[in-house]
Amino acid sequence: DVSQTLELSADAALTHFDGDLAITERLSVLKQVGLGYLKLGQSLNTLSGGEAQRLKLASAVTELKPSSLVVLDEPTTGLHAQDIEPLIALFHQLVQYGATVIVVEHDMRLAASADYVIDMGPDAGALGGQIVAEGTPESVALSRASRTAPFLAAELAEQPKEHGVKDSHALTQDVADVDAIQITGAAEHNLRRLSVRIPREKLVTLTGPSGSGKSSLAFDVLFAEGQRRFLETLSPYARQFLPQLPRPDVEKVTG
């Protein structure tokens, strides 16, 4: 009955509903993001922050359209090392589908698997807010200015990249030649009039010390500007019921 079904974990439900494509397609995404152990009827207020974020990701994946922009804050939080691999595979599936995936992340396994890495620093707070290195994981690992580089180099040496198809030559070139999101003059929080081009339809990882400005760039500038512009597309009638969002402290965001 319904109560017994709600007691099933997502993994158990995959077996129970084997053959029902509409159900198994959605449940398989839960398994991919490492949430196969959750019960179908589990209350949302019992989830950890990492579980809640990955549940949102699983929900969004089933509704994504080509050219979608996905921005995530440390999606590996709370994951065991063995669960990171399926998550990385999912991100590359999204990229192959035509999405741009931008991840704020400290986990070097994910950074090493990215198509493009933007490393921020050199330190936190007032000593951060700058880009110290950017490019393929292999090129950032060679940077002498990056505090992330030694850890990224160690990960690359231990686990050669096996995910997705990466055009290293194209991404090592000036990103100006690549279809990209251009952020110019970002100054939210500790960002120092930062300008950067983020290649589209790639897996892009923002790395750097805690407090270096990664989330400020990803969420307080890029996501905030996208949200503000979306609200502007609504009718005046609809907008009167919604809060007016301030423009982030940035000169220009295009692409």
Element layout with pairings:
Blueprint: H1 2-6, H2 10-16, H3 21-32, H4 49-61, E1 69-73, H5 81-97, E2 100-104, H6 108-113, E3 116-121, E4 130-135, H7 137-140, H8 149-158, H9 168-172, E5 180-186, E6 194-199, E7 203-207, H10 214-232, H11 236-239, E8 252-254
Parallel strand pairs: 1-2, 2-7, 3-7
Antiparallel strand pairs: 3-4, 5-6, 5-8
Helix pairs in contact: 2-3, 3-4
Mean pLDDT: 88
Computed over alpha carbons, the radius of gyration is: 20 Å
Side-by-side strand order of the widest sheet: 1-2-7-3-4
Which structural category do the helix and sheet elements fall into? alpha/beta
Q: In one word, what is the shape?
A: globular
Helix/strand order, N-terminal first? HHHHEHEHEEHHHEEEHHE
- Beta-strand residue fraction: 15-25%
| Poorly predicted runs | none
User: What helical percentage do the residues reach?
Assistant: 40-55%
**Amino-to-carboxy terminus distance:** 50 Å
Major sheet attributes = 5 strands, mixed
- In DSSP terms (H or I, runs of 4 or more residues), the helix count works out at 11
Description of the molecule:
It is a single chain. The chain is an alpha/beta fold. It is built from eleven helices and eight strands. It has helices spanning about 1-5, 10-15, 20-30, 50-60, 80-95, 110-115, 135-140, 150-160, 170, 215-230, 235-240, and strands at about 70-75, 100-105, 115-120, 130-135, 180-185, 195-200, 205, 250-255. The strands form two sheets. A five-stranded mixed sheet has the order 1-2-7-3-4. A three-stranded antiparallel sheet has the order 6-5-8, with helices on one face. α2 packs antiparallel against α3 (about 20-30) and α3 (about 20-30) crosses α4 (about 50-60). The protein is globular.
